[in-house]
Design a protein that fits this description.
2 copies of one chain form a homodimer. By secondary structure, chain A is an all-alpha fold. Chain A has 2 domains: 1-46, Orthogonal Bundle (Arc Repressor Mutant, subunit A); 49-198, Tetracycline Repressor, domain 2. Chain A is 74% helix and 0% strand. The first copy, chain A, has helices at residues 5-20, 27-33, 38-45, 48-72, 77-94, 98-105, 111-119, 127-137, 146-162, 164-170, 175-198. In chain A, helix 4 packs antiparallel against helix 5 (77-94). The radius of gyration of chain A is 20 Å and the shape is elongated. The termini of chain A are far apart. At the A-B interface, helix 1, helix 6, helix 7, helix 9 and helix 10 of A face helix 1, helix 6, helix 7, helix 9 and helix 10 of B. The structure holds a DNA duplex.
Chain lengths: 202, 202
DNA sequence: GTCTATACGGCGATAGAC
DNA sequence: GTCTATCGCCGTATAGAC
């Protein structure tokens, strides 16, 4: 059996919203791209706004939930870092527009999207930071600002996808070369983080 | 003497485009925010599209030109990295929406903006990569993939600003705390890069 | 240069037949 | 569930008076 009309609309909406953002996307685009008409978009999703909210929530969760989950896993530090970079890179290779979509809709004073995002935040302690603390106590790593380390880790994985087109321009990369480049980061990023945590004070 | 109407419009346009992007910004917003009317916006800039192109070009140059310039300076490696992080952080503290604006308008298959950006690219050799090569030959640093290092450096500086609102949510930061956080990165980021370049093989 | 008034199209949304 | 037709609004852009 083929996919339902509702699914076709959702898929088309996700593709176009991620590509162009809320403001530059029209209901007509979505309907046409889903091989249907505007009336059905509103029949299933009531309004462009509500359809967008569904897509945004999914995308936000899809991006951040797995990251949080892996960092909260019970894995040795080094293995965890490798797994994090590996998993996130594969995720973003499948859906490279995810982060720039989510973050561009959350920019500035956009209270609406930020509130929505904050409702999806699971609280709980940050086990990754706790783990780094413990390793420092055991003397396995240096004691540095671990919040900075966590943000740097995330930055190095996600930013290349956000700046993909600029990167391809500056480094004269094809799409295939870009994907090879981020593949190589699966080694480079953990090495970078670990050398910072392990090397002697300068 | 007060600033000209043209300047008022340009300033308002920049503020609103950076906050909401091209698609979610209306000429009415801009006119009202500049204390004038739509007719004058089109009188000075001919159309919303052309006004946007001016703002985008400025913003693109404002973000990437200084970065390229510093990396091409004639400075010792360590001093250059510190200067880069320092200067870029100060720049983005003044204009935190710059990178997410530029990169969100360049996402996906948006050929228009990418072509515009490519026309603004100065070619020339990448002196930063050459410098890293030379340092490796002299045995001062390890020989690793220096493209990866350059991208990581840029990522760690820029990404916190792109993800500012998510970061503030996850780490429960106020705006002041966020600015203190990126200020501390002026030390943390260079240390991270340098420890990777200098530490022994693992 | 600046304003008012207006043209014109495209937008989101819905009514109503099937 | 699906479609056609249409409404009303808001978007950009311009004409024309001052």
């Amino acid at each position: 059996m083929a996919i339902s009309t509702e699914e076709k609309i959702r898929d088309a909406a996700k593709r176009i919203f991620l590509e162009k953002g809320f403001g530059s996307t029209t209901t007509r685009d979505i309907a046409e791209s889903a091989d249907t008409n505007i009336a059905l978009v509103n029949y299933y999703f009531h309004s462009k706004e509500r359809l967008f909210q569904e897509i945004f929530q999914d995308s936000f969760a899809e991006t951040f939930a797995p990251a949080t989950r892996i960092l909260n896993d019970d894995l040795p530090l080094e293995a965890k870092i490798y797994k994090f970079v590996d998993y996130m890179t594969d995720l973003l290779k499948k859906d490279p527009l995810l982060p720039v979509f989510v973050l561009s809709e959350m920019r500035g004073e956009n209270t609406k999207m930020c509130e929505m995002a904050s409702k999806m935040q699971e609280a709980g302690p940050n086990k990754f930071l706790q783990q780094l603390e413990r390793e420092a106590e055991k003397g396995n790593i240096r004691r540095v600002d671990f919040d900075q380390v966590e943000v740097s880790l995330m930055s190095m994985v996600v930013f290349p996808f956000i700046s993909m087109n600029v990167l391809k321009l500056k480094k004269q990369m094809s799409t295939e070369e870009f994907y090879r480049f981020v593949e190589e980061r699966k080694k480079a990023i953990p090495e970078m983080i670990l050398s910072y945590l392990r090397c002697r004070e300068e």
